[in-house]
Structure formats: C-alpha cells, structure tokens
Amino acid sequence: MKQTLLVKHAVGGRMFIDSDKQAVPYSVVQHGEGWKFTVSIPWSGAIEELLACKNELNVFIFQEFDDQPTLKTWYYVKDGSVEYDSDQASLTIIADSRIEYYPHLYSS
Predict the structure, then answer these.
(1) Average pLDDT over every residue of 64-75
(2) Is 52 within 8 Å of 81 (Cβ atoms)?
(3) Quick count: other Cβ atoms within 10 Å of Cβ 39?
C-alpha cells in the first residue's frame, strides 16, 4: 500500500505539503475526539504561509492499494491547533473530524 499526506489551504487550494513530492516523515494518531498529525519538515516560506492560514486547512491521506480502489480520508482542521516547533523542525496539526470516501463511487 502507498500512502500520501496532503496539506492544503481550504480556501485557495494551495498545496503546502505533498508527501508524494517531498519525502517528509509524518505520523497520524487518534487524539481525543480528533486526530493529531506530526510532520518532520524544515522551516520555510511555505510553512510560514501555512501557519498564516492555519484555520483554513484541509488534510488528506490517500491510501492506494494494488487490489482495491484508493481510499481518501479528508480531515477538517476547523478550530484545531496548528503549531510549528522550530527546535524539533516539527509541524503539529490537530484535526477535529474526518470523512473517508472512495472517489470512484462519486464519478459519473
């Protein structure tokens, strides 16, 4: 299985993180009623811009399988916490809710 993490600006659609194009270690774990993403990524202008619109982020996990359709999970950040730890070069995103879906079920 191949898994990809995407972090996008929900309003403008700008892509901030795409683990398929930039190899970044990350983890996602259950965190209370939501989910906690931790991404090891160096500070950059893109991270600065991400933090400037931290209340308008969407996070996606795409799971691609050899023997079944791709499963996409869309995480909503809403009022979740988004922080960058410069000492650890680590971005933390807390998502409040999520929706799992198979895109092929919505194609015409």
Answers:
(1) 94
(2) no
(3) 22
Please, which residues bridge with residue 30 across strands? 35
- Give the residue extent of every domain in the chain: 2-101
- Which pTM was predicted? 0.90
CB neighbourhood size of 61 (10 A): 20
Contact 30, 76 (CB under 8 A): no
pLDDT at position 107:
64
Topology of domain 2-101 in CATH is: Pnp Oxidase; Chain A (2.30.110)
Total residues belonging to the chain:
108
Matching residue, tokens 């299985």: 1
Per-residue confidence (pLDDT) for residue 108, from 0 to 100:
57
